[in-house]
Task: structure prediction
Amino acid sequence: MEPRRRFRIVKELAEGAFGKVYLAEMITGDNFKSAVAIKLLHGKWVGHEEIVQRSRDEARVLGLLHHRNIVRVEDLTSINGQCAIIMEYLEGVDLKSLVRFCRETSARLPRKVAFEIIASTATALDAAFHRKTLNSGQALRLIHRDIKPSNVMVTVAGEVKVLDFGTAQAQFEHREAETQALAFGSAAYMSPERMMGDPDTPAGDVFSLGITLYELLALAAFGKIYIRGEKFDETLNERIDGLDLNDLGQARATQVRQVLRLMLHYDPTERPSAQQVVELMEALAEEVQDGSLRRFCREVVHPAYESEEAANTSNDPFTGSTLFEDSSRAREEALETVEARVTSEGDEDIMATGVVPLKSGDECIADPNMGGSEPKAETASPEPVSEPSESGPDAAFAPQDSGLESPLDSEPVRANDGGGRWLLLLSALGLTLGIGVLYAGFEFFKAQPESPEVAVVETSKYRPGGEVETGEAKGKGGVLSLEIQGVAPTKVTVSAALTGFNYKWDGDQPLQLKDLEPGPYRIRIRTEAASIVLQSKVETGRTCAYRYDLDGGSEDWDQSDC
Result:
């Protein structure tokens, strides 16, 4: 009989709705001992096909990803018939715990450290999406889908690690989970397009990372995320303008706010890529010399880690016991054979087709990452309440029970600055053009006047079709002609993220929007059965006509001109 590994459970590290993570001493057949973290799925989920599959997928995809900023998975096995992931044990604290510790102890979190942490996290996201597998040579195209402070850890040695890929979406061989019965993520860090059910893209992770950066800079929660474009932009400007960045000086503070606006842009196509975020953060870190990550870890992270160790009073029954790895036959059965999907009443709490309002500590229904408290479905709302959720369990830390503070209120709203400026910011930061360009970049931002008020077409209800003179381009714009055929939609929204334009139309009769600013426009059509997002554009002096047939099953416009 082959020797089985033993796991002496030292203590519980974290618990969630789907399982627990333990610190354990792993003892092999030749009596070799090492410290590991074990994520052990709760027994009640053993027969739940998608949760079991996603747990195994998490281990497999992390096994393919060897990156200094991603938690390392050592093995996938089973213990007592339950799926078990063996991971490296990390001595450190997650960013949520770190923010709380800094706030409670009045410890300073240097701006440079914040930028370096975000740069390392973005490096991990970029590697996860573009890393190629050895067998197929195809990119994993992995999207994390739950980036938040509790899923990023800083170790006492100065490492930054991204945790918890249990909700990730990826393309790789032997991937099991294919269904979409479960919705994933944490509403307090979820991009507007994900809340509305749009397909997941890397831009969603960049948005979540932008929220994380804001909270590192503010030492407070970002707050509710609105899905209506005009309300989103208004709130975003209030919060970013309200950040206290006086220690950076006017020029650099302006640049930081510009970067936040790009990462948190309502339009996902206007956000920088993860690699561009790396370059922006590195440029900012080079210019802001107010501390170092290694020193911060010695002086702040280590005490924060020790305080969490002292506060860990879990009385888990496994603590102090020794668990044996299943035999090879039992392990194969546990890992390769999944029972029919459970359809008992106990599944109702984790089945969802969209986002629901969450209470503090909940994950967006349902999150198979074993993190946070078990969610309960409530009545759906068009504006999900975003509150901080509990720490995920992939790290060596005890779960916390207190949320971040309310977001800062601030000065009057300015119009959104729009996206597409990340290259300008890099030049202004002097990445490649030297100190002269750096100074010129600072002067550029200092010389810019306050953003002018943008004429926004707003209504309290959806208007009928016809010809509408918007006056957006002051006689130098174009015309956008829209027609919806088939079953009349209940709601159509025409918006442009770059200018803040937003128009609500009932979709019944054709609509002509005249004198619009040239550029891309986003059209969202909502019916009782579906939500459709289409892209259009306006060109100077031209009428760009678009027609969509709701009954035709098309995925795009029937376009004429432009």
In short: The longest strand covers residues 6-15.
